[in-house]
């Protein structure tokens, strides 16, 4: 499980223990890396193959998946560029590791780039768990997300990714046909045990449906 740099992103890969469950693409928050969400991925969907890339942008030495101009102000041209790069990496990883289309689990900055990939390159993802997301683009693309399952988890006391922002994202994705479930939890910006429990139940339920 050493970091691998042979594909376009430095990343970690954990092979599937149960090939009947979908693989997970794990996208860290600001300052994280390819190791951060591996324990979360293993807890959320036991047996799933895990692909965990490192963001390619540095902000004061901290990895991110795209540039921002200020707190909460995104460089939208860079969002589009990095979303395309990440979609390309997903395809590389699918070929290299022989895995299916992944469900993405993104936290904070990782959730924001996941939402961008979902709308700009919907074919790259089978679904999404977006934890503490914001709307990544002022003008969201007119994507066809028919039936694509999306779980959005917000923190009621989150000063960064406020629940009203996540509601706008949920509405935007639903307008494009996604099957969106949005939960607002009694939490701040950090990951809580409630997030883990809800995301696990959601993922296991959908994995069981896919396997049936």
From TrEMBL:
SUPFAM superfamilies: alpha/beta-Hydrolases (SSF53474). It comes from the Bacteria. Pfam families: DLH. InterPro entries: AB_hydrolase_fold, Dienelactn_hydro. Keywords: Hydrolase. GO terms for molecular function: hydrolase activity. Residues 103-193 form the Dienelactone hydrolase domain. This is Alpha/beta hydrolase.
